[in-house]
Amino acid sequence: MGNKKAGQGMAIGIVIGTLIGVLTGNMGVWLAIGVALGAGIGRVMVQREEEEENPN
């Protein structure tokens, strides 16, 4: 299930980056920033899922 959450985070980041890139006219920079944000969002989602499974 962790890979699915990581993929969802990446998709969210790419959408955000693409949207801001289109609005600002600087697609390349914002797409890269979106990928980086997506990796972070995905990691947080996976970490929260792991904490829910093992609430030690």
Sum this structure up briefly.
The protein has 56 residues and is mainly alpha-helical.
Structure write-up:
The chain has 56 residues and is mostly helical. Helix content is 89%, strand content 0%. The protein is built from two helices and no strands. The protein is rod-shaped and about 45 Å long.
Topology:
Layout: H1 2-24, H2 27-53
Counting DSSP H or I runs of 4 or more residues, the number of helices is 2
Biggest sheet architecture: none
Rounded mean pLDDT is: 90
From the alpha-carbon coordinates, what is the Rg to the nearest angstrom? 13 Å
Instruction: Please state the structural category.
Output: mainly alpha
Ranges with pLDDT <50 over ≥5 residues?
A: none
Name the beta content range: under 5%
**How many DSSP-defined strands?**
0
Please give the share of residues in helix: over 70%
For the terminal residues, how far apart are their CA atoms? Answer: 20 Å
Reading the helices and strands in chain order gives: HH
List the defining traits of the structure above.
mainly alpha, 56 residues, 2 helices
